[in-house]
């Protein structure tokens, strides 16, 4: 199956698979709870640093993390053969904000209440250096996997990414800021005159975006675009390409 994919997509899928295989070690750094524990006790921990880095990276790289490095991307790949139906992100993407806004508000409130960060412990609740160092943590690990794979199997491609991902909003906000100022960053650009209207880009977009319409307008920005390059690699006419440039 992988051999049939363009080289860039084989590399991308290989990277996210490796990241997923290390997930038992790293899951605490993605934890939405440990950052709360840290804020409650004034401790700057690994998940707080990671979420901050995701925001900062999005100012230049958009949501490329989601397409190229996130373990959730591998979970989506696992579920895809079971349900390849595309979701309309415009109808469901609001759900993650319903989760993220109260969550980030609690973190800010706890941090203010504790008097701000007073010490640094990047291995908070991960003292052994291995996230799954007790039986109850395995339960959390399998719940996370079941959520992301289960939602994708039940509702379609990357349903978990669209609806419950607590990391995506950091990058969406960062990309929104970048788009306001239009400084050089990684983005997609399109040449509408080269498009043959085959719509392979639409059928192959893992995030269910109407890429064809975006190409026709030559406006490739979308908050749910993860810059995976699938549309680039499936377009025989080379109507889409990566660019590191200013503009929107």
Summarize this entry quickly.
The protein is mainly alpha-helical. The chain contains 14 helices and four strands. The model has no long low-confidence stretch (mean pLDDT 95).
Characterization of the model:
With 248 residues, this protein is mostly helical. It folds into 2 domains: 2-177, no CATH class; 182-245, Alpha-Beta Plaits. It is 55% helix and 7% strand. The chain contains 14 helices and 4 strands. A two-stranded parallel sheet has the order 1-2. Strands 3-4 form a two-stranded antiparallel ribbon. Helix 3 (34-40) packs parallel to helix 8 (94-113), helix 4 (46-61) packs parallel to helix 11 and helix 6 crosses helix 9 (135-155). The longest helix has 21 residues, at 135-155.
What distance lies between the first and last C-alpha atoms, to the nearest angstrom? Answer: 35 Å
Number of domains: 2
Topology as a string of helices (H) and strands (E): HHHEHHHHHEHHHEHHHE
- Return residue spans where pLDDT drops below 50 for at least 5 consecutive residues: none
Overall number of strands:
4
Give, in spatial order, the strands making up the sheet with the most strands: 1-2
SSE-based structural type? mainly alpha
Mean pLDDT: 95
């Amino acid at each position: 199956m992988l051999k049939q994919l363009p080289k860039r997509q084989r590399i991308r899928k290989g990277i996210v698979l490796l990241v997923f295989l290390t997930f038992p070690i790293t899951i605490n750094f993605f934890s939405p709870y440990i950052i709360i524990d840290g804020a409650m006790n004034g401790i700057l921990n690994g998940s707080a640093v990671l979420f901050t880095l995701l925001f900062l990276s999005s100012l230049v790289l958009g949501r490329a993390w989601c397409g190229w490095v996130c373990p959730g991307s591998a979970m989506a790949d696992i579920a895809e053969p079971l349900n390849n139906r595309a979701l309309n992100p415009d109808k469901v993407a609001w759900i993650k904000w319903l989760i993220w806004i109260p969550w980030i508000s609690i973190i800010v409130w706890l941090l203010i209440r504790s008097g701000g960060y007073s010490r640094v412990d990047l291995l908070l609740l991960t003292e052994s250096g291995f996230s799954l160092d007790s039986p109850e943590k395995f339960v959390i690990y399998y719940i996370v996997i079941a959520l992301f794979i289960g939602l994708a199997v039940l509702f379609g491609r990357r349903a978990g990414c669209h609806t419950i991902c607590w990391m995506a909003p950091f990058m969406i906000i960062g990309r929104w800021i970048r788009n306001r100022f239009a400084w050089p960053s990684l983005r997609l650009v399109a040449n509408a005159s080269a498009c043959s209207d085959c719509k392979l880009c639409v059928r192959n977009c893992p995030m269910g975006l109407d890429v064809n319409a975006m190409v026709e307008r030559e406006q490739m920005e979308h908050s749910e675009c993860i810059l995976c390059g699938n549309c680039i690699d499936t377009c025989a006419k080379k109507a889409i390409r990566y660019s590191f440039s200013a503009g929107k």
